[in-house]
Amino acid sequence: MGFKWQSLGRFLLLLSGFRGWMEALGIGRPPVPLLRPGKTRPVTQNQEQVDRRTGRLLGGRTDGRTDGQLAQTRLQEQVPWTDGRTDGRMDEEPGDASRPRGDAPHPSPGQGRRRQGKKKKKKERRKEKKKERKTKPPQGQTRRGKDKRHTYGDVEQLSSRAARVFSQRLGLQPGQTVAVFLPNEPTYVWTWLALAKLGCAMACLNYNVRGQALLHALAAARATFVLASTELQDALEEVLPDLQRDGVKVFYLSSTSPTPGVEALLPAIETASDEPLPGHYRAGITASSKAIYIYTSGTTGLPKAAVITEQKLMMVANLGRICGLRATDHIYTTLPLYHSAGLLIGVGGCLEVGATCVLRAKFSASQFWDDCRRYNVTVIQYVGELMRYLCNTPKRDNDQKHGVRLAVGNGLRAEVWKEFLQRFGPISIWEFYGATEGNAGFINYTGKIGAVGRANAFLKSFAPFELIKYNVEQDEPIRDERGFCIRVRPGETGLLVIKITKNTPFYGYAGDSKKTEKKILRDVLVKGDAFFNSGDLLMMDHEKFVYFQDRVGDTFRWKGENVATTEVEATLAMVNFIREVNVYGVSVPGCEGKCGMAAIRLKPGMSFEGENLYAFTRETLPSYAAPRFVRIQEALEITGTFKQCKGNLVREGFDPDIIKDPLFFRDEKTKSYVPMNADIYAAIQEAKPIWGLIRHFCFLWGSL
């Protein structure tokens, strides 16, 4: 069955962390502050000095205290990462003497008196500690790329102050949704925690979105407040009249406001009380409560607001722990915090284990490794094409002189994976697969290059998934005579669907029931079942390793064959003059399906070589997969999470009147890619044979 004890251990570790988050959030227990400490251990004086020098994010010990002693001190100091209780008791302490837990025997009166005496002494010590707290500096630091440092104490105090201002000044109530329109900065973190303390959901707006798309995002999440940065003043003022008309209140998280009628809240936050908020704000929070709205990338239309519940938030934040993230690690986060990878896995993972977060405003390939060395980074995050950008930087003698031991992310292509390891050293790469709105995913715990995970009986029982046959042309699953979907065999590509169960619920998109229903496949294997439609094509080999193949919307059909854009891109990336490539399908008049087209970016100092590209594609690709058109661009369009955009490229097609970039056509007569001109384009549109076109297209004789 492919069962591995290692996978069982990882799963149990996930459940352990999940239970801790459940306790910390007060689900099934009395309301408590938001976070709990990760697994920590005493550190030496030398370690503490290093941590201070590098700006370690949450905590750092110099006194060799045990976990229990540290937890007690944190409770006494009213710091939010408690063990899930509000009465200051430790796990090993008994509860009320008159109410024993579980099936334990009822304590004797003498035992009760002794326990009450201990509780009284502990209460007195807590009062003393509380008095000392005002003069005691908080331990532990967080650092971002501009060397602004925040301790856990800073973040706790700021979030409590902000929560108090949001509640008393803005009138925020539990259950309301607040949109944050902020760049990558520490303000994002304490604002998130402040809203969580109030029991409010946070809508994470993409700071690149403008105009109608921004209004659409706010309406989808039904946000009644917007907390913004003055850096985004122009974007905000563009839609401000519409927001005011709709009753959406807007505030800046800054010292002053550059916009008339928009108040700056930072002065009020700085002077507010930093005492912890009462627990009643989160009294109604459950595992299924909406915690965050994260928007899809918008590569195929307007962004959709994916619902992230408290349960999913906790499980995603535990991903770092599963990958081996430790309290002593320094995580370098360059990903936008409006995305789940940056906010939940990056920052959330740090909060879960007590690690250091090095937060950078934006990704910079040229500064990446210098930052890693400067801040003693041990863990990096990646998505999409980020790793390729690192590999495309000029080689240096110190490429392998760094302290990075672990990389966590998704979307790493096999050819880039190999090049990255060869150039930057033996870094443990944990590739995972999962959709923001999805109900389950995979994780590659073996290090198998190119794989996104490995299936086993335990995973299948917890999160039942299937790979089913899919008709690319009709854009729907293939069903048998009974109307049920058909499983693919090992080695075949199929659509990934994940069963919707109590363990793997699907909450869909906020404010769009039609799109939510569109992501659900019904009657897949039996009448009445329901599966989440991932929209992704995956393949599982005979060893149960799972590989991402393509998006169903990106794969196209030509000459009766399915063409996976990712496979063609991986092949073309090996050409010596190509730096980046984006493959997509375009419609051709008179032909069924779509033919391949590639947008490429040349390496610096290199020129396009049509004959060499023709020879290479003829040797390495099937005839139906070789791109018929090539477009050269100075930069390829990507999303904020480094995913390639294909929509605009598909719409522009291969029309030389629209495309101003250099455009080439694959010519069989000259065995080269030749410049595209108006005559060739007109011949294609009129379905006339010219320059060997009938060798490619179905103008006269059908598919060849």
Automatic annotation (TrEMBL):
Instruction: Indicate the secretion signal residues.
Output: 1-24
Report domain AMP-dependent synthetase/ligase positions. 145-453
**Enzyme nomenclature, EC number:** 6.2.1.3
- GO CC terms in record: endoplasmic reticulum membrane; plasma membrane
- Catalysis: reaction(s): a long-chain fatty acid + ATP + CoA = a long-chain fatty acyl-CoA + AMP + diphosphate; a very long-chain fatty acid + ATP + CoA = a very long-chain fatty acyl-CoA + AMP + diphosphate; tetracosanoate + ATP + CoA = tetracosanoyl-CoA + AMP + diphosphate
Q: Name one GO molecular function term.
A: nucleotide binding
GO terms under biological process: bile acid metabolic process; long-chain fatty acid import into cell
Q: Which domain of life is it from?
A: Eukaryota
Q: What class of enzyme is it?
A: ligase
Q: Which family does it belong to?
A: Belongs to the ATP-dependent AMP-binding enzyme family.
Q: What is this protein called?
A: long-chain-fatty-acid--CoA ligase
